[in-house]
Design a protein that fits this description.
binds zinc ion; mainly alpha; two-stranded antiparallel ribbon; about 350 residues
């Protein structure tokens, strides 16, 4: 009997020892795993980002690849419109218009074309600006979770470029480039001059479009009209030009107006969302939000376009100009053309 009790006690002790050892092993494994995965920046956003990482990867790579196709599309469509204007419309203008109107169309058309080509070329080839590699030089206000590097004010990480971009506005697939501190003006000027060019083509080609459209409608009458191949090609080209130009004028015009409103407020597209949230948060506390990068509507435009003296409106806005924007994009001091002194606020 004693021997049986002794055996039972020994078995229970062994079982406890095994459970204890298993518990120790579990705690040790847990500690090892947490030590390996520990990151002071880890929160629910990081976990969600990690789960969605394959989808982001796919979208980023597709967008990067499509960027090249989109740039080719912009160049191809613009070239087709220019070719139609030179081959179909210009001979007609030279034959039928008065000398004053001929001069106007030649001068305005070529000026607009030069402005479009210059700003598009500069927008796709100019780097938007990135924080320097030497991290000690930076007075960063936050840390980029992707680059694990200081992020200056107004800088955001672009997942398509896989880099931090100074004063990032957005990643534009039509430029296959990020829009940031150094090419924001080129991007906006391209949108503006392209819209102006499309409106100009739509207005000046309206009469020709009406005639060409009416002629195309007669193609299927009986007996069919006797249009030559050149005449049919002319009709179709004019309709193509008008439909494409008026559609782009509407779509790009709306985008240009949206960006113009943002520039007037001294915000980028990303800051628009950040500032709106901040405005709502402060409103609940009975406080008023003020954008630290806004110097007032007129001064915001002067800073954006780099207009320091009145003659710059001609040399830097109405003519192609490769001048650099104010500042380095790393810190945001008051630009020299802004006279009104403002108390610096904490950057967001
Ligand atoms: Zn980054
Ligand atoms: Zn980008």
């Amino acid at each position: 009997m004693r021997l049986l009790l002794k055996c039972l006690r020994l078995g229970r002790r062994r079982r406890f020892k095994l459970v204890w050892q298993a518990e120790q092993l579990w705690h040790y494994g847990h500690l090892c795993l947490r030590s390996l995965l520990y990151n002071s920046f880890t929160n629910s956003d990081v976990v969600l980002d990690s789960l969605f990482e394959p989808i982001y990867w796919l979208v980023d790579h597709v967008t990067r690849w499509f960027g090249v196709v989109f740039v080719a599309l912009v160049i191809g469509l613009t070239s087709s419109i220019v070719a139609i204007v030179y081959i179909c419309l210009l001979p007609l203008i030279l034959q039928t218009y008065t000398p004053a109107w001929i001069c106007w169309h030649l001068a305005y058309g070529h000026w607009n074309l030069i402005m479009i080509v210059f700003h598009y070329y500069k927008a796709i080839t100019t780097s938007p600006g990135h924080p320097p590699q030497a991290k000690n030089d930076l007075t960063g206000v936050s840390i980029c979770r992707k680059c694990i590097a200081p992020k200056p004010a107004r800088t955001h990480h672009c997942s398509i470029c896989n880099r931090c971009v100074l004063k990032m506005d957005h990643h534009c697939p039509w430029l296959n480039n990020c829009v940031g501190h150094y090419n924001h003006r080129y991007f906006f000027s391209f949108c503006l001059f392209m819209t102006m060019g499309c409106i100009y083509c739509s207005i000046s080609g309206w009469e020709m479009f009406r005639d060409a459209y009416a002629a195309i409608e007669t193609y299927y009458q009986t007996p069919p009209p006797t249009f030559s191949f050149h005449q049919r090609a002319f009709h179709k080209s004019v309709v193509y030009l008008w439909v494409l130009c008026s559609s782009v004028a509407l779509a790009l015009g709306a985008l240009t107006l949206w960006h113009a409103a943002l520039i007037t407020r001294g915000e980028t597209s990303i800051e628009r969302h950040i500032n709106r949230k901040e405005r709502q948060r402060l409103q609940k506390k009975g406080k008023v939000f003020r954008n630290p990068y806004s110097y007032g509507g007129w001064d915001n435009w002067k800073v954006f376009l780099g207009v320091d003296v009145p003659r710059h409106w001609l040399t830097r806005v109405l003519l192609p100009s490769p001048h650099l924007p104010h500042g380095t994009g790393l810190s945001w001091d008051l630009p020299p053309c802004v006279t009104q002194q403002r108390t610096p606020l904490l950057a967001i």
